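Lecture 7 notes: from sequence to structure.

We start with a single chain of 114 residues. Read the sequence below before looking at the structure.
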Amino acid sequence: MRLVKRADGYYVQFCISVERLETAPMTGKTIGLDVGLKEFYTDSNGFMAPNPRFLRRGEARLKQAGRLVNRKVKGGSNRRKAKVILGKRHLKIQRFPLYNGTINNNKISSCIKN
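Now the structure, written as tokens:
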């Protein structure tokens, strides 16, 4: 068991050992994915998903929140509140959902190659 404190609250993490078996019906379709920098991914059908540049979009808000923290007096309650806001903005960028629509859109069985 592990207790983790984040900007939006406390979380408890448990480590358990469970054998999990997932079975999905075979559809017979296969698709190749190429992950890149310019496009997030390109599949073998020619579809290119745009790269979600969520960090670039959130940098201005992080910069502003960081400046607000630095303007506050150390040890003050307003600084503590500004630090909470900064932490929440970091979490929002960290938890940005990546594009996962390719499997749902193409209705394919997925496999992972190591």
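The beta strands are 2-6, 9-13, 33-35, 39-43, 48-50. Keep this in mind for problem set 3.
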